[in-house]
Design a protein that fits this description.
The protein is mainly alpha-helical. The protein has helices at residues 21-33, 35-52, 55-70.
């Protein structure tokens, strides 16, 4: 299924159920045949990574988590 907090279905990728060969086949085929969708998902994924998963953002998240745990 992917990592839900990282991958948003139909926004940054296509999520399929574990062990579902049919869903995986459909998702791969859809991406192979739809240049526009591939481009859109790629752009959205890159934007999400740059907004949420930079070294700075991850460091800030850990810092905030540690502060909460120490309260």
């Amino acid at each position: 299924t992917g990592v839900p907090f990282a991958n948003k279905d139909k926004k940054t990728g296509i999520i399929v159920e574990p062990n579902s060969v049919d869903q995986l086949h459909y998702a791969i085929k859809k991406l192979l045949n739809d240049n526009s969708l591939r481009s859109k998902l790629g752009r959205n994924a890159k934007k999400r990574v740059n907004e949420k998963f930079t070294v700075e953002k991850m460091g800030e998240s850990y810092f905030n988590l540690y502060n909460e745990l120490l309260k």
